[in-house]
Structure prediction request, 306 residues.
Amino acid sequence: MNGEMIPWENATVHVMSHALHYGSSVFEGIRCYETSKGRCIFRLGAHIKRLFDSAKLYRYAVPYSAAEIEQGCRDSVVKNELKSAYIRPLLFLGEGSIGVVPDDSISINVIIASMEFGSYLGEEGLKNGIDVCISSWARTTSASLPILSKAGGHYLNAQLIGGEARRNGFAEGISVTARGTVSEGSAENIFVIRDGKLYTPPLSAAILNGITRDSAMTLANHLGYEVIEQEIPRELLYVADELFFTGTAAEVTPIRSVDGIEVGSGSRGPITEAIQTAFFGLFNGETQDEWGWLDSVEKSASVLSS
Ligand code: PMP
Prediction:
C-alpha cells in the first residue's frame, strides 16, 4: 500500500475517501499461474499499461512508474507465498475533499493485493459451458463514460448486469449497447463462431479492451482461424455455432445457452475447445509462448520496502 508491504488487517482507508463516495478508482485484475517454468504472471506489462491508460482517461496522475507497479505485483505474490494468484492493483482517490470534482488536495493511493483464486465461472462451466442471458440493462457507452478505462464506478453497470442474471438462475449476463448490438458480459468479452469464423464486437461496442480477448484473437489466428471484429446483432447469439467468453477471471469459458436457447450442440464446441487448449497450454507448457506473455515472478529483486 503506497509503496510499503503491510499486513492485510492494516490495509484500511478512511470513510471520507473520495473513491468510496464517487467511484473514483482505476484497477486491474491479473492472474499468476503455476507454469512449467515456475510462477508466471500473465501479460503483466499489458495490464499495467491498461492501468495507466485507465488513469489517464480520468486525468489521475499515477505516483509510481510502470516498472515499480509491475514489481509490486511480483512482490505481492512472493510475500503471500501464493502458487497461483489473482492480483489486484488499484489506484484510488483518498481523503482531501468532499467535492465531486477532485482538487489538488486529494490524495492518490495505490494498493496491490493478491489472493488465491480458482476458476471464476466454475470448473464444470469451463468444460461443459455456462447458461447466460441478455441483460435488461444496457451497457454504459462512451457517450457517457470513457469505457476503455477500467474504473471502479463503471462496475455499478456490471453489478446490475451480473446480479440480475444470477438472480434469474443464469451464470452471467450479456449487455447490449443502446443500439441493440452485443457488447460484452459483466466482466468478460464475447466471441461468436459461425461457419468456422470467429466474430467479436469492436472497441466501439462499449467493451473493455480485454487482454484475454487479445490473447484469444492471437491464438485463434495462430491456429489458422479468421477473427473478425464487427458489430454483432443480438439475435446472432441465438443462431451461433459456438459462443465463448474471455476474461482474466473467466479465462476461456464456453457458453452453452442464451436465454434458454441452446447454442449449437448445447455443449462446448470444437473451435472453442481448440482455443481453450491453446490458452491453458501456455501454462502447462504445451503452447509455446511466442509472444513473451509469461512474466516470471522470481525474475528480479524487489524495489519495495517490506
Ligand atoms: N470486460 C469487462 C467489463 C471486464 O471487467 C473484464 C475483466 N477485466 C473484461 C472485459 C475482460 O478483460 P481481461 O481479459 O483483460 O481480463
Q: What stands out?
A: The chain has a mean pLDDT of 96. The longest strand covers residues 85-93.
